[in-house]
Amino acid sequence: MLHIENLTYQYGTLTVLKDLSLRLSAGQVALLFGENGAGKSTLLRCVAGWTQVRTGTIAVQGVSLREQDRAYRQQVALVPDTPDFYDELTAWEHLQLNAQLHRIPAWQDRAAYLLDHFRLTEQKGALPFTFSRGMRYKLALCLALLIRPPLLLLDEPFAALDALARQTLWQALAEHAEQGGTVLFSSHSAPPGAQPDVLLHLRDGQIEPVEASGEVDLTALLSQD
Question: Are 31 and 130 part of one and the same domain?
């Protein structure tokens, strides 16, 4: 699903990602972790095509970001840690706009399901700037899940959510993977019982896969950074 080869990224003279390579398969949920400033958000933005990559290659389902930019972007959705919205559009109108942009037919039932799933149904007619941080993130999740992207990227998805919403999100990520999608998310925490398929430690600009057999104590693992 996702193939990254020899990716290097710099901020001025500071090299954040160094000759980084990574492969993820369809149906996998991967947790990206590392200390603050390790480059997790930068990596996600590079994979999403939000940050221009000059060295290395990134492809999703064989579609290259460098060579097929428009087709590539149709394969990927990123929910940043602080999502932005249009001030003049309601939550429902954001979903409608996203459905129209991605040419999704009969989108209304799924949109209603997602709002209900994340307990936003009563706010469907409200403007997102009136929402709490957690509600804004949940709306951004609804927008991303509406289009069912082959590759779903999430930056610190659990940070703004309450305990119930964290479990709801984990269930949604598992369902997305069961349907053949791939999930890559960065986080310093995870809900109880969450067991990603792949653990990726970003350190010194490179990915260090974490070998694990059986269940992993994510709280203990993530507290190391």
Answer: no
d(CA 126, CA 28): 35
* pLDDT tens-digit readout, 176-221: 999 999 999 998 877 777 889 999 999 989 998 776 555 666 665 6
**Domain co-membership, 165 together with 69:** yes
Residues sharing a CB contact under 8 Å with residue 83, sequence separation 6 or more, in sequence order: 136, 137, 139, 140
Of 58, 1, 16, 205, the closest CA to residue 50 belongs to: 58
Examine the domain organization and report whether 134 and 25 are in the same domain.
no
How far is residue 146's CA from residue 172's CA, in Å, rounded to a whole number? 11
User: Position of tokens 């941080």?
Assistant: 133
Q: CA–CA separation, 217 vs 164, rounded Å?
A: 20
For the chain, what is the radius of gyration of the CA atoms?
A: 17
pTM over 0.85: yes
Strands 14-24, 2-11: pairing is antiparallel
Query: In the chain, how many domains are there?
Result: 2
Structural domain containing residue 7: 1-75+150-225
Check if the beta carbon of residue 21 is closer than 8 Å to that of residue 5. yes
What are the C-alpha distances in Å from 121 to residues 98, 111, 118? 17, 10, 8
Q: Tell me how far apart the alpha carbons of residues 34 and 225 are, in angstroms, rounded to a whole number.
A: 6
